[in-house]
Design brief:
The protein is mainly alpha-helical. Helices cover 73% and strands 0% of the residues. The chain has a domain of 80 residues. It has 5 helices and no strands. The radius of gyration is 26 Å and the shape is elongated. The N and C termini lie far apart (59 Å). 1% of the residues are buried. It is a multi-pass membrane protein. One of its GO terms (cellular component) is plasma membrane. It comes from Smutsornis africanus (Double-banded courser).
Length: 134
């Protein structure tokens, strides 16, 4: 028993494959970004925590070495604002929208009034009554 194929079926299959490929690429990119961030976090902070426990147990860690490991962790925290825009398009757009150093020349600058109205609840809205809220 065979069902005859219509011309729309192969197009739907290719569209479904394209949809799957698009989402699998996004998932792969998200996994890669997360892997890089977590990898950098462990490389930077794990030696600090191991040394901290070692220092508590035996007290044999030189103060200068402990300071170097602490600053390695601080450098990891400094790298996060650099890593996020490299791998995340939404983060890059947000930085470009609100930071003057990252904005393209043709983009309009948001005014302080529009930012404050967007962040507060005092913008124009429909009248609400207690009955509508409850």
């Amino acid at each position: 028993l065979q069902v005859p194929r219509t011309p729309s079926q192969p197009a739907a299959g290719s569209e479904s494959r394209r949809f799957t490929n698009k989402h699998s690429k996004k998932a792969l990119k998200a996994s890669l970004t997360l892997g890089i961030l977590l990898g950098m976090f462990f490389v930077a902070w794990l030696p600090f925590f191991v040394t901290n426990v070692t220092q508590a147990v035996c007290g044999c860690v030189p103060a200068g070495f402990f300071d170097v490991l602490t600053w390695l962790g601080y450098c990891n925290s400094t790298m996060n604002p650099i890593i996020y825009p490299l791998f995340m398009r939404d983060f890059k757009r947000a930085m470009g929208k609100y930071l003057p150093c990252c904005r393209h020349s043709g983009e309009p600058r948001p005014s302080a009034i529009s930012l404050s109205m967007r962040n507060s609840n005092s913008g124009p809205r429909a009248a609400t009554s207690l009955k509508n809220v409850l």
